[in-house]
Write a structure and sequence with these properties.
The chain is an alpha+beta fold and 682 residues long. The protein contains 16 helices and 24 strands. This is Xanthine dehydrogenase molybdenum binding subunit apoprotein.
Length: 682
């Protein structure tokens, strides 16, 4: 077990985040958000703002420079007069101090020709359409057999609709950019990003620069969860402003402005239909999903994708439908797709267990497939049943009385619930370099991102192991696009993907090490494009099982989670201490999803009403009592040289369903609309 390498730097405040870089002559940006929900900007009156002492520039659609690429509507900042959603950035002030910039931003007068925005997701919305593909490049619909007839023929049926609200990642560090143009026209961005290489590519395209002319620096990132996985408008805005004023510019998106501008998890409406025989063997699974995107860019989550791989059933269908609304574009939030999708599937499985009178652990075991159900591919490894059994044993499931409202302690109703988890095991191509130094130490270089996950430490462990060196002799440089290019910290792919590149580079270095290291050192590098592209056809997924206990106050409807256990099978766990933290973090977000997180759209004017952490509730220490995350030893030869499947996201997948199922067990009330707030329970 290796403690987080940058832990000391972080707790002593030495670790530099994007806003912390001291640059000479730095100026500060404040942005103005659209007050119209849809329409056109008629005029921008900047006179009062420009007259403020200390104001360096005002930017808007009236004077902004033309960007070389405007294909991504979210990033085409100030390129048109069109307002696509309330809260969109429409103007910015650059000033000597942040206070001056904010004050001057308040003085801008923007006139709009506005129309009523259409912002309400309804499952019967007339604009619903079938997208070409959904996130991760998957087909929107799949169908096998005759699910409608099979549902009719089933002894036990569940036909229910769940809704999940929009949710926002709320990283501690806001989306932040410090942008600096050198005399030679090179752009440096100190950025809070999950991918220095991908951020570099996107910003280079937007500004029409060669890739080498953009450098993205992000050695420390204060959380992301997906929100920093793709560049956001703040980065373009800071870069544009820095070029305009000829000085470095800093812009940290205030939390109040974050809800409209940095992405969110789409709300969903999900109809789940399950049909089974009297023994609970599934005959049909139908999962129909409705979600939203914006008018500027299409983003569609793969919400029903996990339903394609979880349980055996001869007749099945999944569909995704989306509607373009006058809203910001949804984006990634921890396990985009799998999180809301598995909430619905695993809640419906619980409803089926109740309807059929079968234990919910046993029901899942009975529907275990021997191959991936829709593709027919063999699993590289699948240990869902082992996770369920191990969890049931550790949690004390055997003593459970399945009858709802069967346990009570004073005014508290007690219940327990279970749900399965899954997440794909991805391998993305990339590069790495490893170097032996003459002093006997090693340096590994890769443009990976450590967003608080412990990625740097895991890579050091892998390098040390491959080089047969003590981990204390290995230094790992990450978070800089000038390092060998790496994939984004997303899709729980980091340890597997970057780890493969690091292992290959270290193997190549090891082969070249014999005898003394010359003063200039010895370096070797690796590119895993071929290896990542040539994998054998297997279905690769991590699996897990969540067990939750809840206490529901019978008078107030308040739900507490005294105990939660997650058991995971995710291939090799490289560094237990940081891995546990990832899994517990995901499960904690599951508590938030189940009980409190909700971004509320203003149905009349547009934009989310949430403005801060007083209005967007996430679990705090008092909400989290005993959470245990454990894992099974799992050795899978079909993954990658690391043997890891990835653990960044699976902790949240299914967690909310386990809590919802426990609430039903405690109270007999099935809440199908998240979050399970007291008002929905009473
Ligand atoms: Mo994660 S939501 O794939 O960054």
């Amino acid at each position: 077990m290796t403690p987080r390498l940058e832990g000391r730097e972080k707790v002593t405040g030495e670790a530099r985040y994007a806003f912390d870089y001291p640059l000479d002559g730095v100026a500060y940006l404040a942005a103005v958000q659209a007050e119209a929900g849809r329409g056109e900007i008629v005029s921008v009156d900047a006179e009062a703002a420009r007259g403020r002492p200390g104001v360096l520039a005002v930017l808007s659609c009236e004077n902004a420079p033309r960007l070389a690429s405007r294909s991504n509507g979210e990033l085409a900042v100030f390129q048109t007069r069109t307002v696509s959603y309330r809260g969109q950035f429409v103007a910015a002030v650059v000033a000597e101090t942040p206070e001056t910039a904010r004050e001057a931003a308040r003085l801008l007068r923007v006139e709009y020709a506005s129309e009523d925005p259409d912002v309400r997701l309804r499952d019967y919305h007339p604009g619903l359409y079938k997208p070409e593909i959904v996130n991760a490049g998957l087909p929107p619909d799949t169908e096998q057999g005759d699910p409608e007839a099979a549902l009719k023929d089933s002894d036990v049926r569940v036909d229910v609709t769940y809704t999940t609200p929009a949710e926002h990642n709320n990283p501690m560090e806001p989306h932040t950019t410090t942008a600096h143009w050198s005399e030679d026209g090179t752009l440096t961005l100190y950025e809070s990003t999950q991918g220095a290489s991908t951020h570099q590519r996107t910003l280079a395209r937007i500004f029409g620069l060669e890739r080498e002319r953009v450098r993205v620096v992000a050695p420390h990132v204060g959380g992301g969860f997906g929100a920093k996985g793709t560049p956001r408008p703040n980065s373009v805005l800071a870069a544009m402003a820095a070029r305009e004023v000829g000085r470095p510019v800093k812009f940290a998106v205030p939390r109040q402005q974050m809800y409209a501008t940095t992405g969110y998890r789409t709300p969903t409406v999900q109809r789940m239909r399950l049909g089974a025989d009297a023994d609970g063997r599934l005959n049909a699974i139908v999962h129909d999903v409705v979600e939203q995107t914006s008018t500027v860019r299409e983003f569609v989550e793969q919400t029903a994708a996990p339903t394609r791989i979880m349980y055996r059933a001869p007749h099945r269908r999944t569909t995704h439908r989306v509607v373009r609304l006058d809203v910001p574009t949804p984006s990634w939030m921890r396990a985009p797709g799998e999180t809301p999708g598995m909430y619905a599937l695993e809640s419906a499985m619980d409803e089926l267990a109740v309807a059929a009178g079968i234990d919910p652990v046993e029901l899942r075991v009975r529907n275990e497939p021997d191959r991936e159900p829709e593709s027919g591919l063999p699993f590289s490894s699948r240990n869902l049943v082992a996770c369920l059994r191990e969890g049931a044993e550790r949690f004390g499931w055997a003593d459970r009385d399945p009858a709802p409202r069967s346990r009570r302690a004073g005014r508290r109703l007690l219940g327990t619930g279970v749900a399965a988890a899954t997440y794909p095991a991805r391998l993305n191509p990339g590069r790495a370099a490893a170097r032996a130094e003459p002093d006997g130490t090693f340096t590994v270089r890769i443009a990976a991102a450590d967003i608080g996950t412990g990625a740097r430490t895991a890579l050091a462990v892998l390098a040390a192991e491959t080089l047969k060196a003590d981990v204390g002799r290995v230094r790992v440089d990450v978070g800089d696009s000038s390092l060998p290019a790496a994939s984004v910290a997303g899709g729980s792919s980091g340890t597997a993907s970057w780890g493969t590149a690091v292992v290959r580079a270290c193997e190549a270095l090891r082969d070249r090490l014999d005898g003394a290291v010359p003063p200039e050192g010895i370096e070797a590098s690796a590119d895993t494009a071929e290896e990542a592209g040539a994998r054998e056809p297997y279905a690769r997924h991590a699996f897990g099982a969540h067990f939750a206990e809840v206490e529901v106050d019978a008078d107030t409807g308040e739900v507490r989670v005294p105990r939660m256990l997650g058991v995971f099978a995710a291939g090799r766990i490289v560094n237990p201490v940081t891995a546990r933290s990832q899994l517990v973090g995901g499960m904690t977000m599951g508590i938030g999803m189940a009980l409190m997180e909700e971004s509320v759209m203003d149905g009349r004017f547009g934009d989310f009403l949430n403005r801060d952490l007083a209005q967007y509730h996430v679990p705090t220490c008092a909400d989290v009592r005993r959470i245990d995350a454990v894992w099974l030893e799992e050795s899978d030869p079909h993954l990658n040289p690391v043997g890891a499947k990835g653990i960044g996201e699976i902790g949240i997948v299914g967690a909310a369903a386990a809590i919802g199922n426990a609430v039903h067990h405690a109270t007999g009330v099935r809440v199908r609309d998240l979050p399970i707030t007291p008002g929905r329970l009473l």
